[in-house]
Design a protein that fits this description.
alpha/beta; four-stranded mixed sheet
């Protein structure tokens, strides 16, 4: 990697509230839980932390609530080296939270309360323009209002800034608006939601990517989990093999891929090398539990990169 890039992430910041219990309570019943874990999450925040750990200078554009979690989220960004000057506290609104209940069989029930994430509006993008104009890449997801996502993509296109959109959580989108992104990076299920086409194997992924390109999307990377990733552009389609590991917890692996890919590409890596490195980084994240807590350091990545099988 030749330079330290500047990545701006426009997206969500949540707090995950995970309770472990032998069973779920019945209506009206109170029972004792077995354990509790509070963690920082949100797809935008996760991707920002991954990019920072991979060596990028990172700025976060987000909103949090005027509650205990809001300042704690800002403090977490700062502790991890992410510039949080544009993470704004929103009065009268809760921070984004995800109460998660996990029973002894590993089954979970999750509620996501978007809270202040839903208050990140186009006016906030205009206010953050000096930060965005200084960025080598802008990274977005779909846990903030869609109008803000589209507005930011148009802003990036108008100003010649590389834009990377992770269309997650999956939902139908205006493909004409997606054409403003330099890269659209869904997983299999998100690609299915965008196109209505099933993605069950590499052949399906290729067909789906070609469909998106014909719809006006400029470049597509479909992440395929244990099957690596497929990258499609105007002139060629490439399959980048996975980095094989015995996964423990895949939570956040997609965010690890997006954040690391943005950092590697903006630092001057060739596209296929950036994807291959991101595959390794995402795979390593599955060896730990949780999202941000499982993301590894640059040194750990480099050690695994040097030991990867050569094709």
């Amino acid at each position: 990697m030749t330079t330290q890039p500047h990545i701006a992430v426009v997206g969500s910041a949540n707090v995950d509230l995970t309770t472990f219990t032998d069973r779920f309570p019945r209506p009206g019943e109170t029972i004792f839980g077995q354990g509790f874990h509070l963690g920082f999450g949100g797809k935008g925040a996760n991707q920002a932390v991954a990019a920072r750990l991979c060596g990028a200078r990172v700025s976060m554009i987000a909103r949090v609530g005027d509650d205990l979690f809001g300042q704690a989220t800002i403090d977490n960004f700062t502790a991890r080296g992410v510039d949080a000057a544009r993470v704004l506290i929103t009065e009268g609104v809760s921070s984004g939270v995800a109460p998660i209940f996990v029973d002894s069989a590993g089954q979970n029930r999750i509620l996501v309360v978007k809270g202040a994430n839903d208050c990140l509006l186009p006016a906030d993008i205009d206010a953050a323009a000096p930060v965005l104009l200084d960025a080598d890449a802008i990274v977005l997801q779909l846990e903030i209002p869609i109008e803000t996502v589209y507005y930011t993509l148009r802003f990036a296109r108008a100003n010649g800034i590389r834009a990377i959109l992770n269309p997650a959580p999956g939902q139908p989108l205006d493909l004409a608006e997606l054409a403003h992104a330099d890269y659209v990076i869904p997983n299999e299920t998100e690609a299915e939601t965008l196109t209505g086409m099933q993605v069950n194997n590499l052949h399906d992924a290729r067909d789906c990517a070609v469909h998106l390109l014909r719809s006006g999307v400029r470049r597509v990377i479909i992440t395929l989990g244990a099957n690596g990733a497929l990258c499609a552009g105007e002139t060629r389609v490439d399959h980048v093999p996975p980095f094989a590991v015995e996964a423990i917890d895949t939570s956040g692996a997609g965010d690890a891929f997006i954040g690391s890919f943005a950092a590697f590409l903006a630092a001057g890596e060739r596209e296929t090398d950036a994807i291959a490195r991101a595959n390794v980084y995402a795979a390593l994240s599955t060896l730990g539990v949780g999202t941000q807590a499982s993301f590894v350091t640059r040194d750990r990545l480099e050690a695994s990169w040097s030991q990867r099988p050569q094709s």
